[in-house]
Amino acid sequence: MSTAAPTTAPVNPRSRVIIASLVGTSIEFYDFYVYATAAVLVFPALFFPSESAVAAQLSSFATFALAFFARPIGSIIFGHFGDRIGRKATLVASLLVMGIATFLIGCLPTFDSIGVVAPILLAVLRFSQGLGLGGEWSGAALLAIENAPARRRAVYGTFPQLGAPIGFILANGLFLILSLSITPEAFAAWGWRVPFLVSALLVVVGLYVRLRLVESPIYTKSIERGERVKLPLATVFRYSWRPLILGTFIMLATYVLFYFMTTFTLTYGTAPTEAAEGVKVGLGYSRPEFLGLLLIGVAFFAIFTPIAGILADRYGRRKTLIVITIAIAIFGLTFQSWFAASMDSASVALFLATGLSLMGLTFGPMGALLPELFPTNVRYTGSAIAYNVGSILGASLAPTVALALWTADGDIFKVGLYLTGAAVLTLIALLLSKETREIDLVDNGSTGSLAP
């Protein structure tokens, strides 16, 4: 008598997990940073030309901030389907939303062509970008850690995190090449569109990789045990409200640091060294020069992200992040004495490399920590909301607040103090939280399953 061979659920090869989580978020962050760079370099003149220089920059930053308010909405929408129907389909959908919105921005007519309709369309597409990114990150993080080997979740969780520096390098590297290879007039006329249009090719690559995935064994087992809930959002707020709040504030300093080190420093670094009407004093670099220095700093971001995963697996997420957050608080106090007082490119590069190294160290462990705070059946929703509400508190207003705190004579001490304050709030959240390194993700679903 023969017996049927036991069947097992298909498992994603580790190489495919790494590539899918890395490639997808690289594309998503590429799309996002293309907009961030354009918001500094060209959008004030192209979409808000009737305003003063400062007002146009503030309007451009306001559309930049729109995506951050869209991201929690995206996290609720995509989180619901990620917990209800699976990670794979949701990741594909979020990539499409983000990619299509970015491509259409590259096709937009400017204010000179259609008037006030142009900034309105820009705002709508920017909002759509935020919806897509709101569902992207947590799905990629879950893909990585739910397929990770034992005691290597934090390392695997850094692969989607690496999408941030890689996407930044791709986006700003392309802007830099265009700035150096065509005239400023050509760049303003059509060159700025190229990075947005190129995103279509990158989306095709991302879709190919993600469509070959299968659901993670942890998610599949949760469904087989009947732990799926009808309303993940309601379940998260009812049973997991405390980790939701803590996770949001744990992300706060990370977001403030990153957008100060990229969007604000680019604005400050390229502002003139002497006062001009409507323009505050800065370091006086040309845009290509400062983008080159910024790309050096982001390389350190990429280097220290996986290092942070190794540290978090060895010493624990909480302990690692407490030390790093204290370092961020101290770094914020050096803005005026270091960055504003920089007299040469080496000092600027060192400042950027230091800040973005800290960014890699604080961002790296988040790919494991935030998902580990929540049970399997609401993990997508919970981690997405914490991550993206943190973006509202930490990143959406960071460039605008920095611009307001930056005085006309070039003083940016209060800008750095703002970062220090954010780091203190994050430190409090970390001290109130528990270590998640030893949590069993397979059995971390019982609480949510008690919900109706």
From TrEMBL:
InterPro entries reported in the protein's UniProt record: MFS, MFS_dom, MFS_trans_sf, MHS_symport, Sugar_transporter_CS
Transcription regulation recorded as keyword: no
Keywords: Cell inner membrane, Cell membrane, Membrane, Symport, Transmembrane, Transmembrane helix, Transport
Domain Major facilitator superfamily (MFS) profile: from-to ranges: 17-437
Subcellular location: Cell inner membrane
Transmembrane feature ranges: 32-48, 54-78, 90-111, 117-145, 166-184, 190-211, 244-270, 290-312, 321-341, 347-373, 385-406, 412-432
Highest rank taxon of the organism: Bacteria
Membrane topology: Multi-pass membrane protein
GO molecular function: symporter activity
Keyword Manganese: no
GO CC annotations, alphabetized: plasma membrane
UniProt similarity note: Belongs to the major facilitator superfamily. Metabolite:H+ Symporter (MHS) family (TC 2.A.1.6) family.
Annotated function: May be a proton symporter involved in the uptake of osmolytes such as proline and glycine betaine.
Protein name per its UniProtKB record: Putative proline/betaine transporter
Lineage: Bacteria, Bacillati, Actinomycetota, Actinomycetes, Micrococcales
